[in-house]
Specification:
Elements: H1 11-49, H2 57-75, H3 77-105, H4 116-126, H5 133-138, H6 143-171, H7 175-199, H8 214-253, H9 271-301
Helix pairs in contact: 1-2, 1-3, 2-3, 3-6, 6-8, 8-9
């Protein structure tokens, strides 16, 4: 099995895992897609109430796509297996594009309280970071398909919806508390990264100025909604593949010796591996905080 993309080298084994995955997620997906229809209809009603009709087109197309998904699911696992990846990718991308377009034209009232935790949670919610996990779990793609799709979803929100959100963000009551939290996050990463450089014997650390809101939004979309969510999907799929091989092994053990075929050896991740993953993600998060600032500074000077 590929260590990163998690695909089996045996095409027949990969096909059997596809069917195993469909059976395992069938009911969860049914609930998720039903909720999608309700949420999309709510957005369409609000857009219509504000006299905005052109921006409803992506959502209407997604409703048609969801209708096809319900029809294919009703037709059985064999048909779903054939069309699942294409239909789910379309649903994910149309959904994100539709929501990003809707949020770029709707006037959402933002207001921050004086509670630091509430302010931080409001900042995350304003950029719709929690919404990144629900489609990744409710409309699961295999990891090798998830990576490009999730990256495109993050970029769609970042380039279409974030400018409007940041404008509303900077005009919201209590925004000074939110900006102060951004500065505290920046100071924390500066301290950690400067200490890391000094441990390496390097004295070249230089603070890069951060653009309010847009930098935090880019960081949350790239590191959290893409990086962290993708890692969660990777862990879930790896565990599913381990469970799949274990169930398949039990079937093989019941066969005659001459009919048995060896399976790939894939074991659950150990504690030390989990710790190393956390350390890598922490390092990547700190480095990305500065790299994103460099990228934004470059984009604004070009």
């Amino acid at each position: 099995m590929d260590a990163f993309f998690l695909t089996f080298r045996d095409a027949n084994l990969e096909g059997r895992f596809d069917r195993y995955m469909i059976h395992g997620t069938f009911q969860v997906e049914k609930v998720f897609f039903s909720l999608c229809v309700v949420v999309i209809m709510g957005y369409i009603i609000r857009l219509s109430a504000e006299g905005i009709f052109l921006h409803q087109i992506p959502m209407v197309i997604n409703l048609v796509n969801l209708g096809v998904i319900f029809y294919v699911r009703k037709d059985g696992v064999a048909t779903l297996e054939k069309w699942r990846t294409l239909l789910y990718i379309c649903s994910r991308l149309l959904g994100y594009y539709g929501f990003a377009v809707a949020h770029s034209v709707l006037n959402w009232k933002l207001e921050f309280s004086s509670n630091p935790l509430a302010v931080f949670l409001s900042m995350i919610a304003a950029h719709h970071i929690p919404g990144a996990l629900f489609p990744a779990i409710g409309c699961r793609l295999k990891f090798r398909h998830h990576i490009p799709v999730r990256l495109m979803e993050a970029l769609i929100f970042l380039f279409i919806q974030t400018p409007t959100t940041c404008q509303q963000f900077l005009e919201a009551p209590g925004v000074s508390d939110a900006l102060q939290i951004e500065q505290q996050v920046d100071s924390t990463w500066q301290t950690i990264l400067a200490g890391f450089y000094s441990q390496l014997g390097l004295n070249m650390w230089k603070t890069i100025p951060k653009k309010p809101c847009i930098h935090f939004a880019a960081y949350m979309h790239i590191v959290w909604s893409f990086g962290i969510v993708s890692y969660i999907v990777w862990r879930l799929e790896r565990r599913s593949r381990v469970n799949f091989l274990q169930s398949l092994q039990r079937e093989i053990d019941g066969l005659d010796v001459g009919q048995r075929r060896p399976l790939p050896e894939v074991h659950p991740t150990t504690g030390s591996v989990n710790v190393s993953h956390l350390m890598i993600m922490a390092g990547w998060s700190g480095l990305a905080w500065e790299l994103i600032a460099v990228a934004l500074m470059f984009c604004m000077t070009v």
